[in-house]
């Protein structure tokens, strides 16, 4: 019953864009695995950050989440700010069986097209793990800033999608995988290393009175940190990015630059206890002038 009601609700808000190319190179059709991966990351991050964001949000009335995925952040935002109207937007519909709070509405859209929102109409815009899939990030950033009212907050968050090691040379397995992954992403016209560039982009845009960043190191080896929350987040990230590579192999094949042999060598190095491999998440929060 709820499922039917919810589907009708979604259908009401869905506006089909006539020409919608598939810009998201990762497998969204494997809803089960993709949903678990995204939800686990959301709850791991929210636990580590002890909330939705480090920005000092004070009773926002209009919140926009671009790239709502499974709806986990949107729902938590709607529950945290029950008097706010929260808009979730994505090219994929939200999962059908969500218990969606009444202050959430969903709009289907492709972010490569102009946003269907009035300028300066949101107090908060959140976009996580999406810029990495969009070409021309500077242009996207200025479109995001234009939707914020003065004093509003842009919460822009992404991974720097490569593995780093503070103490050792990167091994050939890891190097080979990222060579292929980088080529695959470049073919889509997108930048897998955008996470580490967000702060500079935000500062150079001159749209914000303050730009803040927190870098969360997600360790592949639990012994690299004594913080249990970071150990847990690292574990989640490890299986999550492994799932991304399996997805690329399944959906794109060898053209994705990742073969079973390359993935095996990557796994061996990632699980090697003598290494300190990590992937960094760059969480930014910036206040509009
Ligand atoms: C890696 S998921 C992240 C989802 C969510 N933000 C989270 O943190 O769990 C990327 C999301 O962006 C959406 N997406 C990617 N490119 C898009 C585009 N051009 N237009 C609309 N949605 C897009 C995908 O459908 C997917 O839900």
UniProtKB/TrEMBL annotation:
<protein>
    <recommendedName>
        <fullName>S-adenosyl-L-methionine-dependent methyltransferase</fullName>
    </recommendedName>
</protein>
<dbReference type="Pfam" id="PF13489">
    <property type="entry name" value="Methyltransf_23"/>
</dbReference>
<dbReference type="InterPro" id="IPR029063">
    <property type="entry name" value="SAM-dependent_MTases_sf"/>
</dbReference>
């Amino acid at each position: 019953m709820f499922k039917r009601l919810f589907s009708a609700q979604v259908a009401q808000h869905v506006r089909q864009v006539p020409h919608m190319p598939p810009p998201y190179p990762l497998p969204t059709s494997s809803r089960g695995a993709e949903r678990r991966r995204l939800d686990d990351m959301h709850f791991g991050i929210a636990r580590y950050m002890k909330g939705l964001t480090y920005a000092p949000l004070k009773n926002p009335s209009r919140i926009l989440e671009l790239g709502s995925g499974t709806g986990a952040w949107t729902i938590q935002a709607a529950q945290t700010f029950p008097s706010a109207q929260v808009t979730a937007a994505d090219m994929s519909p939200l999962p059908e069986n969500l218990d969606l709070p009444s202050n959430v509405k969903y709009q289907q859209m492709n972010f490569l097209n102009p946003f269907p929102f009035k300028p300066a109409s949101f107090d908060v815009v959140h976009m996580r793990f999406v810029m990495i899939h969009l070409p021309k990030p500077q242009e996207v950033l200025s479109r995001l800033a234009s939707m914020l009212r003065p004093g509003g907050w842009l919460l822009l968050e992404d991974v720097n999608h490569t593995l780093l090691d503070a103490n050792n040379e990167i091994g050939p397995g890891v190097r080979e995988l990222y060579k292929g992954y980088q080529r695959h992403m470049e073919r889509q016209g997108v930048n897998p290393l955008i996470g580490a560039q967000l702060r500079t982009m935000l500062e150079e845009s001159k749209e914000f009175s303050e730009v803040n960043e927190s870098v969360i190191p997600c360790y592949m080896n639990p012994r690299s940190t004594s913080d249990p929350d970071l150990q847990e987040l690292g574990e989640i990230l490890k299986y999550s990015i492994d799932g991304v590579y399996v997805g690329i192999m399944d959906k794109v094949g060898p053209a994705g630059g990742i073969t079973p042999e390359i993935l095996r060598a990557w796994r061996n190095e990632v699980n090697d206890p003598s290494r300190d491999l990590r992937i960094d998440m760059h969480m930014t929060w910036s206040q509009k002038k």
